[in-house]
Specification:
The chain is an alpha/beta fold and 325 residues long. The protein contains 12 helices and 13 strands.
Length: 325
Amino acid sequence: MGKNLPVLHPIVIAHRGASGYRPEHTLASYELAIGMGADFIEPDLVATRDGVLVARHENEISETTDVAARPEFAARKTVKRIDGREVAGWFTEDFTLAEIKTLRARERLPFRDRSFDGRFEVPAFAEVLALARRQSAETGRTIGVYPETKHPSYFRSLGIPLEEPLLAELRDAGLPVYIQSFEVENLRELRKVTDLPLIQLLEAAGQPWDFAVAGDARTYQDLAAPAGLAEIATYADGIGPDKRMIVPADPGGRLLPPTALVADAHRAGLLVHPWTFRSDGTFLAAEYGGEPEREYEQFFTLGVDGLFSDFSDVAVGARERWRRG
């Protein structure tokens, strides 16, 4: 396991910050999540043209910034092939950090609060780390950082890899850290050069993009089987599965009995940090009766070691209620 990790268990990871309340991946979102008691904040990382890591869920930024309304950048709209898909829009790798800093964040989901649109910058990873250090000092709590490398094979193909600058930024961060990725080979390579804890992300369907490129037919479901978990344990410290790999649902959305994934992963020596927990009715299964706390409590009882939530206050409150029994 990695060094200097909090002993609090299970951990609450602020998914893109307090993204249920503020535009995702903004310093305001991360700061609010910390104030709500989150143990870790999660910045998804992509790169700018000048090789600076910034916090965005995707390198295509029209959904989460005002770039589409900025006439000075209209000519940069383009179509790219990313991880096997054609994507149209504006991409971080076509902008310098200085240009990215002129943009303002906006809420991605139409049913969430839009009143903060246009108020916040896109933060560089260095700013997220500085916030976590500052908040750790001010609150007396150690705030961890849980970065994800987004599209790592794609960025490496452009000559602006994510992993080297990530490790350079973390070298003197002095914070608890987990590094996560949906791809495999970059985690294997990271394991050779760092003892920081690594998390293999798992989707309920499909396969890692680097597997597809290499002609490896294995899927995420294969990796979630006992043999796959044993392999993951050779290079990673845990898994971050889609929560539906733990509590599945039928095609109509009705929940099914839990799988053995948590027990199987623990048997392999792996932590389990599922994603993503949200209070919005759009995302909450009907079986929880409109009470998101019941979903958290189910997963805590199933033995997860932490989870990703858009609503850190609800997650922390549910954890405290669950601890009290």
